[in-house]
Amino acid sequence: MKKFINDPYDVVDEMVEGFVDVHKRYVRKLDAARVLVRADAPVKNKVGIVSGGGSGHKPAFIGFIGQGMLDAVAVGEIFTSPPPLACFEAAKAVSGGKGVLFLLGNYAGDVMNFQLAADMARAEGIQVEQAISTDDVASAPKEEVSKRRGVVGSFLGWKTAGAKAASGGSLQECKAAVEKVNRSTRTIGVALSPCTVPAKGTPTFTLAEDEMEYGVGHHGEAGTAKIKMMTADAIAEKVVTEVIGDLPFRAGDEVALMINGLGGTPHIELYICYRKVRQILDAKGIKIGLSYVGEFFTGLEMAGFSVTLTKLDQELKGLLSAPADTPYYRI
Amino acid sequence: MKKFINDPYDVVDEMVEGFVDVHKRYVRKLDAARVLVRADAPVKNKVGIVSGGGSGHKPAFIGFIGQGMLDAVAVGEIFTSPPPLACFEAAKAVSGGKGVLFLLGNYAGDVMNFQLAADMARAEGIQVEQAISTDDVASAPKEEVSKRRGVVGSFLGWKTAGAKAASGGSLQECKAAVEKVNRSTRTIGVALSPCTVPAKGTPTFTLAEDEMEYGVGHHGEAGTAKIKMMTADAIAEKVVTEVIGDLPFRAGDEVALMINGLGGTPHIELYICYRKVRQILDAKGIKIGLSYVGEFFTGLEMAGFSVTLTKLDQELKGLLSAPADTPYYRI
Predict the structure, then answer these.
(1) Which CATH number fits domain B185-318: 3.30.70.100, 3.30.1180.20, 3.40.190.10, 3.40.50.1580?
(2) What's the rounded Cα separation, in Å, for the pair B268 and B261?
(3) I want to staple B319 with a disulfide (CB 3.0 to 4.6 A). Which of A170, A291, B3, B163 is the partner?
């Protein structure tokens, strides 16, 4: 394992210290727990948007704290859920009188810990709702959508909920908007290399020189199949074809298209994949209304990318296009 | 070599096609050459700011085309200078009547090709000046600063020149500003892994499991020494101590501090290194006026980071803090 770290068990605390210093215009750390909140939290009379999860996904989650996106993030260890108390402190810190919405990916630890935190917050009189992202097509069959993992589609949920909250939306309206974006979003990822969690020290899976990991998540979980290396055009076509077929997306649909780098893949390759996906969507009569290429949700240094499609309507397009001002995303 | 590419010789053209499609609000491609320019180029009565160089450095160079930064970029093959004709076409396309400033790194091919392009542009009546960045401390001794390579300090030059031009500065004023930032800037990089140029197919250098490449450039050139792995704090201290000593930076100075990821290093590690550098600067009485952590100039998937310090004065701080709106940098 070659990494620029000190004690593997200090990685997250030291990262947070650096991050808060660089981005103090946007964020501050709570004293009570490892939670980062908007510098101006709580924002009065606005629904508080809270997320959280394991570390190692930069720019997610903390890079998206700010106006029009997240109000708070509970920061776990690498690929590890934050404790319930941290999620609870996050809720308290951003409660501005209109309730708090928890946005989480569909992982057992996150679901359990946020549920406990929701109970604690409600006991203190804070209205709390939850929305769980489940965009990863590869993680469970279509008939069991509720078992699917949440991956980079979560970013679109944060943006949507954040915009709805910023525009004065109620807790129920924010929840409805993010549930709509989740229902409309599908992702599949593929990796060329694993990643190494510092405290573990060994790669999360192994791959031969001529293999790709298909259907990978962003924790370096092994995917659904090891497949032979192929050209960018061929893998992009394979991935987007499966994504399209799942919802399904149809001719005449307008979509948001996201090509998300998983960490170690140069952007040059992401744009090559984007190019092919765009050609395929064009040929199918699916219109790209919004496009995102870059790193939004990574798994440490894992080389790979994912393709995400979200079916847009006027409301979602407007919310995704609304202003946001965060350390890693400004629009 | 495991990469998401098609024919290695099509990598740059296919990337450009994808990039322009995603970022068409900001950029368009010239028909005459592989040059990207601001969507609204030429901007009348503004100095045109042109850069260019090899590809593989994303977000540099093309990610920084837009208001307040670059007007045009001549796009070379991976790690290869763009041809003189492309640089010339770039100059013509952004000439708005106040002259054109070429900003380039100190590499033989770039220097030669931009010089030829400058001659061609002048022959057509376009006023052209050049400024060459030389911030890489490791590439030549202090007594031979003019032989040093330009690395990520170039980003600060683009920002400075772009802001000066946007504020109505003359060609000479833009050149003077970027020369000042170059004189005030020092960088050293260190790598944990090399990168692989697609058309070559083999890594640019080799490293043992317990080694780092010290003084590396962003083309995967071998650095000045192979050194043993050490903690993040130890390598951050070694790098920043050499950077501080070169200018030298002194107690009471205000600086811009940049921790630039070279491509394959997770941001979590960059913030850990930032934290240590900040502690060292604090202890020395050097004040951080501006801070940058992330990827500004990479070498494909190379794992590594660099530390850059720029001595600020009121003018430079103002220019670096002025508005910019580009695909990869907004302020």
Answers:
(1) 3.30.1180.20
(2) 10
(3) B163
